[in-house]
Amino acid sequence: MNNSTPATGVFLNYDGNDKKKFKRDRSPCSPSRVLHLRQIPSDVTEAEVISLGLPFGKVTNLLMLKGRSQAFLEMASEEAAVTMVNYYTPATPHLRSQPVYIQYSNHRELKTDNLPNQARAQAALQAVNAMQSGSLAITSALAAEGALLPGQSSVLRIIVENLFYPVTLEVLYQIFCKFGSVLKIITFTKNNQFQALLQYADPMNAYYAKMALDGQSIYTGCCTLRIDFSKLISLKVKYNNDKSRDFTRLDLPSGDGQPPLEPSIAAAFGTQNIIFSSYAGGGGFAPAMGFAQGAGLSIPAIPGALGSLAVTTSAASGQMTIPGVTGVPGNSVLLVSNLNPEAITPHGLFILFGVYGDVHRVKIMFKKKENALVQMADATQAQLAISHLNGQRLYGRVLRATLSKHQTVQLPREGQEDQGLTKDYSNSPLHRFKKPGSKNFQNIFPPSAILHLSNIPPSVTVDDLKNLFASTGSTVKDFRFFQKDCKMALIQLGSVEEAVHALIELHNHDLGENHRLRVSFSKSTI
Known about the structure:
The protein has eleven helices and 27 strands. With 526 residues, the chain is an alpha+beta fold. The strands form eight sheets. The protein has a six-stranded antiparallel beta sheet with strand order 10-11-7-9-8-12. A five-stranded antiparallel beta sheet has the order 20-15-17-16-21, with helices on one face. Strands 2-3-1-6 form a four-stranded antiparallel beta sheet, with helices on one face.
């Protein structure tokens, strides 16, 4: 093996000098869908290594080099690998309480067909692929290692043991929404234990969340999650308040007179001068949900992975605060950063964030056009937008979205120079969620390469639509009209980023005959 190449097609010829090549300050490789993992624990399983990649997309191959504490993970796309590296670079992942370092490999693909000891890795991959395709007939490494097979239920029952600090509905949402669209949450206390029922849009989201989070602790040494599948198929939520929430029904009342806090939670709220301590072997959320002493946790968020969760304590009250959530109650203003100033417009942000809620105002910063403020209709819609768009690639950059310290977006004063960077959309006819109980609430999905098109007039053909999307610079991979309703269709583009750009450009496009194209992300396949 050439010692100048960190990862080649033959992985079994490392020598003792190889460690010098893997210093973190070495010149980085160009992006590749093959990732090199270092310092993995000797007793780690194939399934645990694969789980690092699952939130970012399909894992297509794996090579374990346990003797050298290394592994190579191949993702289905370079885009997924880039998102994974961008996520784990500032937030080092942990396996069995040990930090693991991830970088791009010089290889473009893994060729492991002729290598020995690959049976376990391939079995684990087959198990994941079977789960992703919805197959329940899994007799493979994951099952053998004790992982529960995915059931039909998309509802999880969550018990929080050793409740030393309060766990709010917002905390649960921030943790679990990174594994998929959370539709409903109900919290309650039973047998002196704080519990919750949480419903995902898809049973596989529930499975992945259970696999990743069961047995993990929200705070070091306490608030441990015990998760299993509920026998319930769907949750019925009557009120949207601090005990229950239906994210598909923003029109629900808050209810009259909330019950008092349970004694155990009230006691935790009253705790004074809490100091977080970390201890050897203390479980924390992957990738790094443990606290250094006196420190809060901050993890950057991406669609499908653990989200941005910073938890601190107030010495005055002893209460837990999540900055921007409980710190700014009901805040609906988002700070959006790392934008491409050459391509972004207020209208573009209005259309994109409008997929997840009704955008009232947008302000691109006059002196720093990489940043913008987006004001949603309410705090729930703001959280939805963060969970789905933070970490999404937009015009060649990775978008960052978090809650702003501002409570509202101020319009420019009369005569104030603004260059058209601040727009008021409060009365826009393009709002998707104006009608209470609208079906649009049930069709909120993460950005995907497949778009759902509707409101298509009969005169518009397949080629018309293909050419329309190609004109935005998209590669059209597949297309089909709905058999029962030719006003609707699915179109598959070359990448998620292409689909995001096309949605921004073509939603509300005039197709003639008083028909304007409606575009949204789809979870369907063609």
